[in-house]
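Continuing the series of single-chain predictions for the mutant panel. This is the parent chain; the variants come on the following pages.
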Amino acid sequence: MKTCFEFGAHRFKPEKSGALWWPAQATLIVADLHLEKASYFATSGQMLPPYDSQETLLKLAHEIDSFMPAQVICLGDSFHDPGAFERLQTETRLRLRRLTRSVEWLWITGNHDRVVADDLGGRSASEVLIENVCLRHEAVALETRLEISGHFHPKVKIRQRGRSIARRCFARTACKLVLPAFGAFTGGLDVRDAGFTRVIGTDCSAIVVGDYGVHEFAV
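Parent structure:
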């Protein structure tokens, strides 16, 4: 059963949760937590169950317990908006601080969130280079180095038992790898959408993690 894939000269293990495990670096990578998305919509009268942050952090804690990483990297948009940190409930804020103190933690800043390292622990950067792999929030179309990013929340439509369903996926080209959103209340952009292919390109495959292994589809 296939459980890993190659990207460049590196081997990665994708998780159904949307997390990416880099064994050689003992690093767990997640993208687009979008914490406090529900409370943001509540400010405009759109009421969603206010449990997205707790659910997302519980899922993240489970991945940390499973892999025992030396480092966690969050690829930006960890918070849904600039005011999200102030809306965190005390219990949720304490849970997040416990996580950032348990392991080396890197916040990559995204287009939604501000620098939070001073408040929550860890350190912040706009991007980081590890083993010639650039990790940033949003892919750069003309980037020629290997690049791991988030931002687009990729998903793909697949046929299953006679019907079409949308599944979130890891999107891969020869030099780009885009992670699905890890957050509980996050939508997605189809990998065939022009907004996605304009930056990522059309020579792309979708990697879907199912109950029986990892499946890759040319798109």
